[in-house]
Amino acid sequence: MLPPVTRDAQLINELYNVVLALAILTFLVVEGLLIYSIVRFRRRRADEMPEQVHGNRTLELVWTVVPAIVVAVIFALSVDTLGRMTARGTLSNPVAHVHAINDQEARRRVERAQPVDMVIEVIGRQWIWQYKYPGGDGVITNEELVVPANKNIRLDMTAADVIHAWWMPELGPMIYVNPGQMSYVWFNVPPGEYIGQCNVYCGVAHANMISRVKALPQAEFDEWYAKQAAATSTATRPGDPEAGKQLFMNSSCVACHYIEGTKAQGRVAPRELTRFATYPTIAQLDGFENNAENLARWLRDPQSVKPGTAMPNLNLKAQEIADLVAYLQTLK
Prior knowledge:
The chain is an alpha+beta fold and 332 residues long. Helices cover 38% and strands 18% of the residues.
């Protein structure tokens, strides 16, 4: 296992080590008895019959009671660990793991569970995590969650499409993230970079749904956040096809779209993008002409153009949209 950096992860690691030790001990005992039985009770003559022990109450009690005790010990340790984990609250201050978004009482229990320095809204999509920062500056990231180190962070998580799961072994437990419900994750970590993986199969590009957390010292985080806020509010320059290509190839776009001769090998989207600029329409919508204005509108909010489309709103910045439009118009 990865070295734990939070109290929750440490508790899980300790429980894992106990279960692993019991599993190894059980394996050694069972295999030892099996080898002993093979040697001790092997047939030595063709007409020899081994001693029958069917109905031996002592043996039956032993192999019934001992496993029951082992399971009971593991169960008790698991319940104790669960009760002490921050992400589940405490026995004196229980927190719903998952609740309906409009359940205000559960929301209040969450807010009482642990004081926090920053609350970040997280949306799981096929196949990215989107992070919306507080403060009204419109800062949203898609590929990486950047947080101040040594601060209490809470993630308020929901899913936009199917069930996902947030799982970062170094930070704590695996948490289901369901559509129409809210899940919560608490952590406080030192400076560093941490990586995890969506732990529930969520479609063909499930393996690409990586979780990345970068914890920066407060001064470095403030500098990073200021740059993100400034970029969000800055007027766009003309689109750069090369920048658009780099953005496309290094984002979740490649999980769904196919462009011949590139790393974009997704087969989810109904049409290839290899010669996208030659298509008369966007998203196969009659009357929605394939031009820069309509393409920018599509990238800004696909659902407003074609309700029910599988393409999510990636909350792209204006400059990112301009660069993607410039790139996609080169595909002929």
